Amino acid sequence: MRAAVHTAANQPMRIEQLADPRPKLGEVAIDVRSCGACHTDLHVLKGELPFPTPTVLGHEVAGMISEVGPGVTGFEVGDRVVTSFIMPCGQCEQCARGNEEICQRFFEFNRGKGRLYDDETRLFRPDGEPVWMYSMGGLAERCVTPATSVYRVPEGVELTDVASVGCATMTAYGALRHAANVHVGDAVAVVAAGGVGSALIQLATVFGASPIVAVDISEEKLAGARKLGATHTVNSAEVDASAKIRELTGGRGVDVAFEALGAVATFNIARDAVVEGGQVVVVGIAARGTTGEFDLATIARRKLQIKGSYGAKPRRDMPVLLDLVARGLLRPQDAISRHYPFEQVQDAYDALKHGETVGRAVIDIG
User: Which UniProt keywords apply (predicted)?
Assistant: First the structure.
């Protein structure tokens, strides 16, 4: 099969021929049709998140099951599926407590070493050299993943429309539902209107939040945010964004501010935009060593809540999201602005690096 292989920081990925990966116990193989280009992949490409090389990135996968491993029930060859970027083991202490989004084995084996849960990769060059996996390694014609991260796509829903549900949308849902527990009528701000920010805006409308303030430095992204449901937009390159958010909310600030980039400047805006007793939810993945500042006395006096959110709970929440898509209440395809053929996979990440991608870009593979 063909796969886009990352070999060194700040070097372009190369499309190589790798051996077809085969599923083992509890796993399935997927013929990939589409894979979203996520900013977290970009952190790895730039060397900002340490990860072994050579590796295949890509964790927003939609495709068709091509092989079912031993012990897997409920799936058949030919099933149309989407994956969650978090691959819960279902056995560790955190999974047992219902915290699949921080599965211990996922972080130990996959995020730590690029392997699946038998401590081995499924990807190899023709000479037998191992190639590591970031999640399931979806920037390839075929990938292997635990069946715990696989979900059927409802009839009538196009595979190319839902690849991003497994990361951008799931990450947004986890932040809204579990970290912040947003209610109807809550005022929210989304600071950085990229892929995850776009999903936050879409889902905030589903949750009944109002007003919804989108913040970015790109007028193009802010225009996209308005189409997705933002009631107000703020260009933080032109005004004091936190002050403007307070002005738009009658001087009070928002109930929840979501930081969706992983940068000091966006964290500061979110921190300073919330009402007393409000929540600052950090969703964006920052480069290692990035630090934000806050005054401890202010946090105590204003009863601020600063929370981290890494994603939703896959086995509980992915069926909910796909049901919303099937009923037309959630349209992830509206946030997709670019499609790239597999041969231009590096172009997708270059555009992401330069801030040119509005919403989500998708690489069409199969």
Answer: Metal-binding, Oxidoreductase, Zinc
